């Protein structure tokens, strides 16, 4: 539900209509990230915008848009410098993110199936260019992970939010471990995620209280973790959360039926919705606040 692109800043400022289109098409909430070639891509573009014949209020609007792109639209650990006289396209292939690119958007297309002319994509454009906000996938750990795989691989911080999460149950533990496996395939090196959940003591036979959550982490999660990977659980007050989310430092997703798989019904599906930037910020701010946490953090680390 998100893709990485290389975008030549020269083509972005080649025409005012292309510049306007750029702001409407890029950013994590739109499902499109830009690799940082040239290094400090947004600053490079802003300097070019300053030279354009635009009104001050228009340039101010561009600055605000670029600040948002810098925060939510530049792919991490993708930087590669470009000096004057260098061919931009050749430097793209030297970026740490080169192998992960979905497409390259340049001033003109060349004899390469990954390279497209960004100024004219009426006839030819990258596969999956139009990414919907919502995707319905099979409710299995593999398919759920596949839908958000790039976000997991690029995450510098990650929250999983589900009031029903139970580390003792395979249906929750298997997707969790698949998410962690996918994180390990990325170039970021994230070594910790945080799960937010609540206690549920309605079932007298198998209550999901703090002691049982801790036991489930120690007995069923910790032995399966990669060495050095840490899983924290924050227990929240009853009634403080209902919706289920996967939130990273750049993008957020809501999971309609939760973060658990359902192997009992092959027709079971879950709707995954990519949040707007403001929606992601709202949820992140709430769950990042330790004042709403009950007791100390429960934590396990792989050995």
Sequence of secondary-structure elements? EHHEHHHEEEHHEHEHEEEEHE
Largest sheet: 8 strands, mixed
Approximate shape? elongated
Q: Could you list the spans in which at least 5 consecutive residues all have pLDDT below 50? A: none
The number of helices is 10
- Kindly report the average pLDDT value: 95
Task: Give the structural class.
Answer: alpha/beta
Keywords:
single chain, 303 residues, alpha/beta, Endonuclease, Chain A, 2 domains, 8-stranded mixed beta sheet, 4-stranded parallel beta sheet, 10 helices
Describe the structure.
The structure is a single chain. 32% of the residues lie in helices and 18% in strands. It has 303 residues and is α/β, with parallel strands linked by helices. The strands form 2 sheets. Strands 5-11-10-9-6-7-8-12 form an 8-stranded mixed sheet, sandwiched between helices. The longest helix is centred in the N-terminal third of the chain and has 17 residues. The two termini are 32 Å apart.
